[in-house]
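User: Hello, can you help with two protein structures?

Assistant: Certainly.
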Amino acid sequence: MRVLSVNGSPRPKGNTHLMLQRVCGHLSKAGHEIDDVCLEEMGIAPCRACMVCAEVKDGRCHGHDDACNGLIDRSRAADVILLGSPVYFGSVTGQIKAYMDRVGFVSRVGDQFLARKIGAAVVPARRAGELFTFAQLNMWFLINGMIVPGSSYWNVGHGLREGEIAGDQEAMATLDELAKNILWLLEKLQ
């Protein structure tokens, strides 16, 4: 099975990356293919609401000439989509929002390619805002008809500087449990 790990942080190797890698490590060890995406490195622009994707219905985004259609293809090919975003002013980053808006809208007005995929979110925060950001990511999974596994707690953690999240032992244990639940769900869905 294929896992798309989408890092919505502007820090490619920051705490969001570490959280995603913690989950992906377990999934990779179990034999699943991991496709890592760092949105900051791709420069995906926000949705322009041009509505061409809804008119043409070819499964493509026509609003920008950037890497989004490649991300649509990678999202379509995935069985599991992991989204990670740090908290920026109590919300998701612009990078992950652009992914959610453009990929999600193309799916919804087209063939619903996100439906019935497994979706899980991870959110690091310096201090607060993680639950609202976590909810935003989970609502995207749910509106797209995806299956969202739980864990032993919400998939959030605390850390500001790169690497600090690794010191949040409760967060690390939560991510380990999330990975176990994704693996269990993948087994049931096969």
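That covers the first. Now for the second protein you mentioned:
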Amino acid sequence: PQLVVAQAKSVLEDQPVAAIKLGLLGNIAVGEAVAALLRDWPAIPLVVDPVLVAGGGGALAEASLTRTYLERLFPLAALVTPNALESRRLAPAATDAAGRAATLLDAGCHHVLLKGADEDTPEVLNTLFSADGAQKEFRWPRLSGSYHGSGCTLASAIAALLANGVPMHEAVSDAQRFTWDALQQGWRTGKRQAIPG
């Protein structure tokens, strides 16, 4: 945790930072340390991709990290981008997507993009829920195959657009197009999942 914070401080104190994207944190110690650091930088838009599970289904983070996300990181976030499985782990009492989004918004973030690529549906449905009650659906043709890094690509693209002053709803829309195009051009280095191209 100390190394992660030291690296982040080196960048934050050295140059202008226009957006921050969090991905895999791995354990509660890193999550708590990052949350403590980011409280000192509230003006920078924060995109939190709560990576809890690998594309293949394996756990990537301690179960206790969900509390850190909900209580420490989401209140700092402009946007949270869980996939369906992650949203169910973060809001286990909710019975549908709207309920899961409401739970995450109640934790304090401004927007939640619930991603549906990991659902068994003919097309991918991503829905942006906002604290002001707005809701927008995005439907994408489901690509064949399995991809590694699609959620990370999407969250990073949104953060990059926010860093360039693009409003949230437009950033979310444009980043999905960028990600879909990157996945359509994805390639495999071996027998595993394809990576964005």
